Amino acid sequence: MSLSDKISNRAEELGGKAKEAVGDFTGDDDLRAEGKADQLAAGLKDAAADVKDAVGDAVDRVKKKFGN
């Protein structure tokens, strides 16, 4: 995962936490839910990137083992 992707995902997560907090403070259930959704989306993007990196590493190991 590139640094810019990590920064973007972290910003989305923090923005979601802020929305959730404001929703809690104001009693706005829609804003609270939107904040939670933003956090979930950021987490899913991070997880997908981790899987992609792990697969890429595994492919590299297999190529190295077979001399490609």
Q: What are the salient characteristics of this protein?
A:
68 residues; mainly alpha; 0% strand
Strand content: under 5%
Number of helices: 2
Mean pLDDT: 93
The computed structural class is mainly alpha
- Write the element-wise H/E pattern from the N-terminal end onward: HH
Q: Name the poorly predicted regions.
A: none
- The tally of strands reads 0
Give Rg in angstroms: 18 Å
For the biggest sheet, the summary is: none
Write down the overall geometry: rod-shaped
Helix content: over 70%
Q: How many angstroms separate the termini?
A: 24 Å
What would a concise description of this structure say?
With 68 residues, this protein is mainly α. It is built from 2 helices and no strands.
Map the helices and strands.
Blueprint lengths: L2 H24 L2 H37 L3
Helix pairs in contact: 1-2
Q: Can you characterise this structure?
A:
- The longest helix has 37 residues.
- The chain has two helices and no strands.
- It has 68 residues and is an all-alpha fold.
- It is rod-shaped, with a radius of gyration of 18 Å.
- Helix content is 90%, strand content 0%.
